[in-house]
Amino acid sequence: MRVVMMLALAGAVGCGASYPVPQDQYAAAETQVGRAQQSGASNVPDARLHLDLAQEDLSKAKALMGSENDHAATLITRASTEAVLAIDLATQQSAQAQAQQAADAVTKAKATQNPAN
Q1: Helix (H, G, I), strand (E, B) or coil at 43
Q2: 52 with 84: CB under 8 angstroms?
Q3: What is the C-alpha separation between 77 and 7, in angstroms, rounded?
Q4: Tens of pLDDT along 42-100?
Q5: Measured between alpha carbons, how far is residue 111 from residues 47, 104, 107, 108 in Å?
Q6: How far apart are CA 99 and CA 53, in angstroms?
Q7: Which of 46, 89, 98, 107 is the most buried (most CB within 10 A)?
């Protein structure tokens, strides 16, 4: 009975360590977080939230790597996804701002050409 319990415990402890260290995935997620920072995500409230979550997940994953690689890999995947979402939200906000500027320029040009309207 003791042998069975010890084998079960050894299997449970070894489970996270048998998963390979997700170094490449971590590096890729770190790159995505960098892209999110460069996209201006810090200046867009919704994007900043996802950027912060990505950074937090990467930090937690780094602490788990080596001991709980499977959990670290999950956090890294989530961090990468959060970073991509932050990029998309920042890009969307930028596109909306540019579209508004273009619309304002058209309105101003029309008003200059037709001052009576």
Answers
A1: helix
A2: no
A3: 31
A4: 999 999 999 999 999 999 999 999 999 999 999 999 999 999 999 999 999 888 878 88
A5: 36, 11, 6, 5
A6: 29
A7: 89
Looking at residue 75, its amino acid is L
DSSP H helical ranges for the chain: 2-18, 23-38, 45-64, 69-113
Q: The tokens 């971590």 sit on which residue?
A: 26
> For tokens 């709980």, what's the residue?
68
Q: Decide: 39 and 90 in contact? Cβ < 8 Å.
A: yes
Q: What is the pLDDT of residues 5-33, one digit of tens each?
A: 334 434 444 444 588 999 999 999 999 99
d(CA 51, CA 90): 10
What pTM was estimated for this model as a whole?
0.74
